[in-house]
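Quick one, tokens below. Sequence please?
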């Protein structure tokens, strides 16, 4: 349901003033996380996706039923101790995100190439022309 821009996603967000919910929404839209550019080239599509803070081993790409799904998980911890070994601050973060694109039923896993460099995942997906089904004449038997 569409609400005026003065309201959050739900009325309860505004009523209870959950600032962390809005901050999460705002962080996802402006932090650069999973922002994607799709560029059409002669024979391929180049998908460039920003994944800042992720490592190559934390990213998975899956092709299933014509959908290419990119997902990433990250875990980090920041421990700071004073000279006596007592914790001054301890922070942990764990999160995951995913995004899917329809690339077509004819695209195979071995057709897609992927490269992760400097926080950017680049996927090269081939263009596959949609084959129009051949119309067969189907005659009805008349008795």
């Amino acid at each position: 349901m569409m609400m005026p821009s003065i309201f959050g996603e739900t009325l309860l967000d505004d009523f209870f003033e959950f600032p962390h919910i809005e901050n999460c929404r705002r962080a996802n839209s402006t932090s650069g996380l999973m922002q994607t550019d799709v560029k059409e080239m002669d024979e391929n599509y180049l998908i460039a996706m920003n994944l800042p803070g992720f490592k190559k081993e934390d990213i998975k790409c899956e092709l299933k039923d014509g959908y290419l799904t990119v997902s990433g998980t990250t875990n980090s911890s920041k421990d700071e101790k004073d000279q006596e070994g007592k914790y001054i601050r301890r922070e942990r973060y764990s999160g995951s995100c995913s995004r899917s694109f329809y690339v077509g039923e004819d695209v195979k896993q071995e057709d897609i190439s992927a490269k992760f460099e400097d926080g950017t995942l680049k996927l090269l997906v081939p263009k596959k022309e949609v084959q129009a089904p051949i119309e067969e004449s189907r005659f009805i038997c008349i008795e």
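Confidence is low (pLDDT under 50) at residues 1-8, 12-30. Strands lie at 36-40, 44-50, 59-64, 67-81, 87-102, 113-117, 120-126.
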